[in-house]
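ugh finaly. both done.
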Amino acid sequence: MQSTTAPFAVPLPADVPFAFSLHALAAHLTTLVDQRKPRGIRYPLVPLLTIAILAKLSGHSRVEAIADWAHLRAAELAHLFGLPRMTMPHARTWGRILAHAVDPTALAITLGQFFHAVPRVGTVPERGSIVVAVDGKTLRGTIPLGQTHGVHVVAVYIPETGVTLAQLAVDQKTNEITVVPTLLAGLDLTGMVVTGDAMQCQQALSRQIVDGGGDYLWFVKANQPTLLADIQQAFAPPTPLSGWSDPPPDWTTARTVEKGHGRIDERVITMSSMLQGYSPWPGLAQVFQLKRTVIDGLGRETQEVRYGLTSLPTADADAARVLAIARAHWGIENGLHYRRDVTLQEDASLLRRGHGPEVLATLNNGVIGLVQQHGERNLAAVQRVFMRRFDQAINRLGLG
């Protein structure tokens, strides 16, 4: 049996948190190759992937919960997707399909194209206008008992829209440094500024991004001791010498103060272009010092100082813009990793077979992208409403 895509569309009620075209999503998924042998296929791949996304949108994220959710709506879903069987797969069958039927890298790219293709058609984004965060996450449910390593995936994520452009698993014998160049090589970096922590601060990766038409912003730590010392020296107070005067620094600053969660959070960034042309780092235009001061409800004060660099010149990114980009990078922790861990229960999943963990993580990325692209921030609240409204919708169509 070959996978087919029936012309289905569910008109959700006006008071649903958001609505999207199942047909458009399924049309993108049809480009995926079903890696199962044609003989014996009972359930086409595209409808099952779409059903899994619907189940996750309804608050059922683990394989067993997806199977139960689909089983309780088997007749309606079979009618909706034009399936010949009025049944849904068993949980073990779901596990085998997710583990072996689809390539997780291809799935991640396909979903990324579904979300990101429309806004860029016919337009050339301004330099540094799209912040793209790169970071990795270990799927803790895949760590065997008594061991410390499990499946580790690296994602390329747009914090502003919640879209994951690509995702790739890291071989346990290597680290993220070997994976990120492959992820970025498949993307059009025009208008993008790629952000990352100290692990991503590598000369080869920086050169690849600049040559690809993008920009970078890295935080710098002791893994690049010479670069870190140069940046720290750029912001060190001048040492007066008799008969000599230091040239005035070219520092520019920006400051933000926020109040919330019982604390005051102040960030002050200082920028300098003095290392441009001095440091051999590829494409370096500006370096920065970022000071963060937090005062909690008891009046206790903590301070943190971080350093970094970017290829964005002053004309395209002043101090305020660089501060906004640096802060946007951490959106991958709150907007993606936290939602996958807590709301979508990713680390509680015990699926370890084949590519199953990576496929589930990619589907989670898709759910987050669907919700956030429609302006919704509270994923858990959306799930509660979507479950009820979706059932109402299919019953209203006479499928129930």
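ok and the 2nd:
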Amino acid sequence: MLDIRKMRDFPDEIRAGLKNRGADAEVVDSVLELDRERRELLTAVENLKSERNRVSKQIGQMKRNGEDTSEVQLAMREMGAKIGALDQDVHDVESRLNEMILTIPNTPGATTLIGANESENRVIRSHGEPKIFDFEPKGHIELGESLEIMDFPRATKMTGAGFPLLVGLGSRLQRALIQFMLDLHVDQHGYTEILPPTLVNRKSMIGTGQLPKMEDDMYHLPEDDLWMIPTAEVPITNFYREEIIDKPLPVLLTAYTPCFRREAGAAGKDTRGMIRVHQFDKVEMVKFVEPTTSYDELEKLLGNAEDVLQKLGLCYRVLELCSGDISFAAAKCYDLELWAPGQNDWLEVSSCSNFEDFQARRANIRYRDENGKTQFVHTLNGSGVALPRLVVAILENGQQADGSVILPDAIVPYMNGIKSIEPKA
């Protein structure tokens, strides 16, 4: 969440940041008005409590002197009722204030590209060239079905649209990619692997910014008030919720999890196949870093995600997202997109974001600086990477004229030496 003190001291800066990302800047005035009301109420109730303490001592002295205290005690009871009412008013105003602040997105970072929407994102570099075929390349749905490694009709029968089913070497490919990425991030990039729950509580979802903004996009178990995670970012970031991190920064964590998203409003868009699904696998990277290093750490995080794609020999590009296209909690974000010839399009497989202290304030994650003072950490996260579109790109780029698919060399050891997936005879 945004720092209320910064909103008081630099309201114009906050308004400008919100306008740059297309958000409602007038909410700043509403927040400041509630904040003024809260502080006035606090002053009033503290004054009454101070007066009550003074009179309590006076009553004690009157009793010792044998004086009648009935009128003073009656006044004290009335004062107590006023204090109780004011305390309730403070609670109500604070609740409204906190609820309002939780709906306000992060402001763009100082180096974030300013723009209205995704059309103003900028390609900052690319790796490799889109593959040229001497035959008409197939899409992953046709490839997956002809190779008998995907079965979308049975997945729909089991659950419904948007839930993929991998079979045989399709399942093996997915498992190999997960293991390859985890090994890379742990052994070469310095992350510690964890295996978190796939259900989290409301506080965890609020801590990373999914709630209340994106509630309609999430799967919820209302009887337990638990949420199926939309990304491993949620449980990993909440690893240190309401804690002071007791080890040197940066702390780097990675995890594989299944992820679940309703994607409300996306019905009808890429609903066949693996492009847009409600359940998918992903390897995630999360960093807890000192504020002064967070933008350097963002570049390293992006490099870790790029390393995955480079080792798989895939053509990709890096987009710097503009202020109107970054996520609710992000201050700056890069996207990685893979070229998929069967789609004749670029597919996003990773977003790497710096949230600055936005998530840390919501989740109360702190560290001690070199002077021993408690500060909020900066949090970062990036997909390292998401599986469905990665599988799409591998199949579509590796396809051969005879219908087989050549697999990237980097995952052959994880496939027990299998170098290609061949059509069934």
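summary for the 2nd one i guess: The chain has a mean pLDDT of 95.
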